[in-house]
Amino acid sequence: MEVIKGGVTVAEGFKAASCEANIKYKDRTDMAFVYSEVPCVCAGTFTSNVVKAACVQWDKQIVDSGKPMQAVVINSGIANACTGKEGFDACEATAKAVEKSLGVDYASVAVASTGVIGMQLPVDKLVAGVEKMSKTLDGSIEAGTDASKAIMTTDTVNKEVAVSFHIAGKKVTLGGMSKGSGMIHPNMCTMLAFLTTDIAIEKSLLQEAVSEVVSDTFNMITVDGDTSTNDTLLCMANGKAGNDIVKDKNDDYETFKNALFYVCEFLAKKMAADGEGASKLFEAKVVNAKTKEDAKTLSRAIVGSNLSKAAIFGCDANFGRFLCAMGYSGAQFDQNDVELFFESKAGRIEVFHKGTPLDFDEDKALEIMKEETVTVFVDMHEGDAEATAWGCDLTYDYVKINADYRS
Question: What is the pTM of this model?
Answer without folding.
Answer: 0.86
